[in-house]
Write a structure and sequence with these properties.
Elements: H1 2-22, H2 67-85, E1 99-102, E2 107-110, E3 132-146, E4 149-150, E5 154-159, E6 195-216, E7 221-243, E8 281-293, E9 296-306, E10 310-320, E11 335-344, E12 348-359, E13 361-362, E14 378-379, E15 383-393, E16 398-417, E17 420-421, E18 425-426, E19 434-435, E20 439-440, E21 443-465, E22 468-477, E23 483-485, E24 488-496
Antiparallel strand pairs: 1-2, 3-4, 3-6, 3-23, 3-24, 5-6, 6-7, 7-8, 7-9, 9-10, 10-11, 11-12, 12-15, 13-14, 15-16, 16-21, 17-20, 18-19, 21-22, 22-24
């Protein structure tokens, strides 16, 4: 008897766990999730832009059908935020002070070079056998645009989903006047002309603290680790307006003869709506924050050729998915980036690095929003990365560094402007006449495109005392692609042993 009870307990436990995993991370079925990936999808509440108990839209007389377009519009933004925030640029783990082998002393001694090296870029030289380099940096990201669209005022339109015959109720009929309705809406009721306009503000900031360590295994080979810690804050607010282009029949279920309306019991802005009138405008907000370790990057670099001034090196970076992807702290996927470096040592030292990063599958690129989401994973975009620049010795203690930091993302999603022309406004219940539709600002998503993201890096390195080097840098965007900040400041300190 005890064994049967124990077996039953485990079966029920398994089914319960399976049931939790079977729904999406952000199910939008009334069940909430405090993870940052759900802040944007849940801005209209735990049911999204749907209807039913606790949802913002009334469904007394007619079930609202805007959820699918809401998910289609906002899910790619969430994906772009997640994939790009989880792969933020970090400073190079190369030591500002290098060591050279002294045959007379039979040991490695600090180089007499006055140049303290690049900040985001890389030079071919290694640190030297048994030498250790430790560093710390802080970067601040305040994202204000995505693919050229201002994240403080993203204008979008949520269209009614297609509602074809046969209809579930004899009271629902095809719109008597089909003027202005495209072929996909052929034979649909008049209420599909209604739509929701929304202006959304996404306020996203990231504080990134990174610890670096590099150790020389041989005089030409060293290994490095970069361990980021992130504090991510996300605040989303949205003002939504229902545009009632159809006229509902007189009924207590349709105050003001409007099919779609916000629920005064759920939407605070509608609480004082007079009896018999429809609430058509609502304000919504949601916020979250997360702090923790990001994705650790491990590196091995070998100096293939070491001339008197010219150096050539190759290596591999491996990004380990140690950060919580659902809180935008990590990518949720392993990344492998082989790279090559060429540099020239002089008072003005040019350098160039190229690499290609293969990324694994992550839930951030998959489907995790909505009641039918399967939490499937999909591949993050692969990236070609290049850094070209030079560092110049201004004095014995001060070096200026300049870099062009570029990347090309393959087969990713991009936000594009796609104005929406509505289906026209009916004059009455029978839609006897239709006022032609007007155009409204809206965006769409192009999937599977390749985009370039280019930044300019400007900074200074100062040798304060002994082998202590202080760093200041700013990263400036040179195009509008991707998730962008106007300027990304960096401060850091390093010491070589």
């Amino acid at each position: 008897m005890f064994k049967r009870a124990l077996l039953g307990y485990f079966v029920l436990s398994f089914l319960a766990v399976w049931g939790i995993r079977a729904q999406g991370v952000c199910p939008l079925n009334g069940t909430g999730n405090s993870k940052l990936v759900c802040v944007l999808p849940q801005v209209y509440g735990l049911s999204g832009l749907g209807s039913g108990a606790g949802a913002p839209l009334l469904a007394d007389g007619h079930q609202a059908h805007f959820q699918s377009d809401f998910l289609t519009s906002f899910a790619p933004i969430n994906e772009a935020v997640g994939t790009q925030v989880s792969q933020l640029p970090i400073a190079s783990p190369s030591s500002g002070i290098t060591f050279v082998y002294d045959p007379a002393l039979k040991t490695f001694s600090p180089s007499t070079d006055e140049n303290l090296g690049p900040i985001l870029g890389e030079r071919a030289g290694t640190i030297g056998r048994n030498r250790l380099y430790l560093a710390f940096s802080y970067q601040y990201f305040q994202f204000d645009s995505i693919d050229g669209h201002d994240t403080s005022k993203l204008s979008s339109v949520f269209q009614h989903q297609v509602f074809p015959p046969p209809f579930p109720s004899p009271f629902i009929v095809s719109c008597p006047n089909q003027s202005g309705m495209p072929s996909k809406y052929a034979g649909n009721p008049c209420f599909v002309r209604d739509f929701v306009e929304a202006t959304t503000n996404i306020d996203l900031t990231v504080h990134q603290y990174t610890i670096y360590a590099t150790y020389g295994i041989t005089k030409r080979f060293d290994i490095s680790a970069a361990i980021p810690f992130l504090n991510v804050n996300m605040n989303v607010s949205s003002s939504a307006t229902i545009v009632p282009n159809a006229v509902a029949p007189p009924s207590p279920n349709f105050p003001g003869q409007v099919f779609h309306q916000f629920n005064p019991a759920v939407v605070p802005a509608c609480a004082n709506t007079p009896s018999g009138q429809a609430c058509l405008q609502g304000s919504f907000s949601n916020a979250g924050a997360a702090t923790g370790i990001g994705d650790v990057v491990l590196r091995g670099k070998y100096e293939v050729y070491k001339g008197e001034r010219l150096g050539v090196a190759g290596g591999v970076d491996v990004r380990v998915p140690t950060g919580d992807a659902q809180n935008f702290l990590g990518s949720g996927a392993t990344g492998v980036k082989p790279f090559g470096v060429i540099s020239y040592r002089a008072r003005i030292s040019p350098h160039a690095e190229v690499g290609y990063e293969w990324n694994g599958q992550s839930i951030l690129a998959g489907g995790f929003v909505g009641p039918t989401a399967t939490n499937n994973k999909a591949s993050l975009p692969n990236r070609f990365i290049y850094i070209v620049g030079a560092d110049a010795s201004l004095t014995k203690r001060l070096t200026a560094a300049f870099d062009i930091y570029g990347q090309r993302l393959f087969s990713t999603a991009q936000l594009v402007s796609s104005p929406y022309t509505d289906l026209g406004k009916c004059s009455d219940t029978n839609c006897t006449t239709v006022t032609p539709g007007t155009t409204h600002p809206n965006f769409a998503v192009n999937n599977g495109v390749d985009i370039n993201i280019t930044n300019a890096s400007l900074g200074l390195k100062f040798r304060a005392i002994g082998k202590l080097v202080l760093t200041g840098n700013v990263l400036l965007p040179m195009d509008d692609n991707g998730l962008r900040s106007k300027a990304i400041p960096l401060v850091g300190a390093s010491y070589s042993f």
